[in-house]
User: What shape does this take?
Amino acid sequence: MSQYDQYTMQDPRTQYPTISASGELQPEPGLDAATRPRPDHGEETYRGTGRLKGRKALITGGDSGIGAAVAIAFAREGADVAIGYLLSEQQDADHVLKEIELAGVKALALPGDIKDETVCKELVRKTAGEFGSIDILVNNAGKQEFVGELQDITSEQFQHTFQTNVFAMFWITQAAVPHMPAGASIVNTTSIQSYQPSPGLLDYASTKGAITAFTKSLAKMLANKGIRVNAVAPGPIWTPLQPSHGQPPDKLKEFGQNTPLGRPGQPAELAPAYVYLASQESSYVTAEVLGVTGGQHLP
Assistant: This one.
């Protein structure tokens, strides 16, 4: 893993190694603790500068992958952070909650399955109750399962993917906005799959297209409240989503090597994009999608 922080100049092609995964899969939803090689969330490298001091953040899927890196970065930038996650991911969540607390800010654990509308509303209620407001909302939790043939996609999978990736985003955002003051920021996790969908990710890519459209429409809807809405579109990022049936075993062995930079990204490389969009530095940025793709550019 990289030995440098996010400020040190270095060659992006070799900042992190290529992934040489075994191709062995783990059960959904996947754990960082069981992912080999271990993803880098910036535990040893991310340095904060107070860019989010005093802010109150809610991050779904904050236990692992991109969400974990964002939670750690937000905490080191001075924000109190609540993370939503599945109870089966408690091991990963405990690691992130500890990192948040080590940053000297408040950490709030919110286990629950966001496919349930009631759980979504409870996440918001508990966050607002504990923190007093929600200044940053990151809709990041996602379900991705590779299925190569159309006829093999079950109705249950299709529904669960949309419930997790789209419906939950709507329910949580709708509940959160009344607790968000002017100056607040919403950052959604879309994907390069919204623009360059892969065969085998039909339901996942469809949800990411919906998230992109949701982001742009919501930004215009909330502009008169002084709330900005943007999204980050990751390319191939090494997270537990990939080995927990998000990719077929044969693709795991060379995951991300077809990008112009020749390697997959690490969660730590996504965090600065979310910090930027959450901070006042992006005060004139709304309805935008920021690609972090290793060179597989967005349209």
